[in-house]
């Protein structure tokens, strides 16, 4: 149950960070391009890479609060960081086809679902 609490608490922190960063980027650079989304994806992916490397190389031990950072904070900040890590780990393990499939499926299916969702609502309104 403690792990669930860490994930929930981290999720709240990550969601607030995402909103704050997006608003800051809009204030600084305007709303004509999704700079906020780009920023959280890039920053979150970097932090995910650093955390994964530190744990996997034994520089820090895997801690029970890992779900707070890796799933909670980074998951709410950007799921792109999880996608990026999963893809890189597949490639590092020589599963290049799976890595490419992960990229293609995430890109195609997510874009298709956005379009489908928009069309379903548009047809009902």
Quaternary organization: single chain
Class by SSE composition: mainly alpha
Largest sheet: none
Give the domain tally. Answer: 1
Helix/strand order: HHHHH
Characterise this structure.
Keywords: Cell inner membrane, Cell membrane, Ion channel, Ion transport, Membrane, Metal-binding, Sodium, Transmembrane, Transmembrane helix, Transport. It is a multi-pass membrane protein. This is Fluoride-specific ion channel FluC. It is found in: Cell membrane. Its main location: membrane. The chain has 125 residues and is mainly α. The protein has one domain. It is 83% helix and 0% strand. The protein is built from five helices and no strands. The mean pLDDT is 91.
SSE diagram, text form:
Blueprint: H1 2-29, H2 35-56, H3 66-77, H4 80-92, H5 96-124
Helix pairs in contact: 1-2, 1-3, 2-4, 4-5
Main location: membrane
Keywords: Cell inner membrane, Cell membrane, Ion channel, Ion transport, Membrane, Metal-binding, Sodium, Transmembrane, Transmembrane helix, Transport
Binding site for Na(+): 75, 78
Give a quick summary of the entry.
The protein is an all-alpha fold. The chain is 83% helix and 0% strand. The mean pLDDT is 91.
Summary tags:
125 residues, cell membrane, ion channel, 5 helices, mainly alpha
